[in-house]
Amino acid sequence: MNITKFLYVLGVTFGIAGFAHSGQIVLNNGDIVKGTVLSKTETHVLWKSDSFGGLNIPLSQVASIDNSGAEATLPSTADDKISLTGNVGLSGSYLAGNQERENLELDVGFTLQDGNAKHKAELTYDAIGQNNEPTEYDYGITYEVDWSINNGWYWNTNASFSVDDKRQIDQSNSLGTSMGYQFWENDKGSLSSNVGLKWISDKSFYSGTDERLAWAWSSDYQKFLFSGTSLSYSHQLNVSTEDTKNTQLSIDVGLSIPVNDKVDTSISLDWSYDNQPEEGVEQIDRKVNFGINYKW
Fold first, then answer.
1. pLDDT tier for residue 228 given thresholds of 50, 70 and 90
2. What average pLDDT does the chain have?
3. CA atoms within 13 A on the CB side of 114
4. Could you report the per-residue pLDDT of 200-222, keeping only the tens digit for each?
5. Regarding the domain with residue range 85-295, which homologous superfamily does it belong to in the CATH classification?
């Protein structure tokens, strides 16, 4: 399979979607952001930007809103606090570390904003059959909820399930809770960070199950550059509360370039480190992704 040609054809298919008419929001600093209103609360407006995607903007930063280009006027009922956005992505990847190979990966995500609660779910799937070798799987599903408290603070709960054959993990489960802080989220970008505890259970192919309680620290950063192009960074660090040598770190750095208001192309680098891997498994894995994403 020629991954480059496949992604090109897919990009052209998605790219024929037309641009939707939109309104604009004017901020107190004079910035103008094109888009439409998705929902509105007493303190924030969820704005779907033509270039930057979903933005949760404090009303204290808004000078005026022109939503004349929206498909429908904003309702005044309690239901206006509910909105759903999502994305579907397909990427070609090159892996190095425990394996060196090229493959395709599917990524599906949803975000539901319901008042002060933000629900997020993500599914990733990668199944590759090597020549004359059994099919290897690398897939997972995560679900988390951010409960807004006040002044940027929020409480996060999360759960995940995954399988990673290349690291000899037959099944991995986690359940965690943390306190988070949203440093900023506007038309320039966003930054948030969480610190808390996570229960992790890793069942390997050969050495049994490793169950542990770990300190967990994660951060997400996004910077909007120009013409809708954005740079992103995220990391997840888990350190066992009983054995600090039992540590895992994953980092994701990406660049997204829009095709239109619904489709963007992306390139990202995923880097993961496990201080105590299974016997015969390398500590470091690296993956480069070239993909296309459709969002709504």
1. confident
2. 82
3. 8
4. 999 988 878 889 999 999 999 99
5. monomeric porin ompg (2.40.160.40)
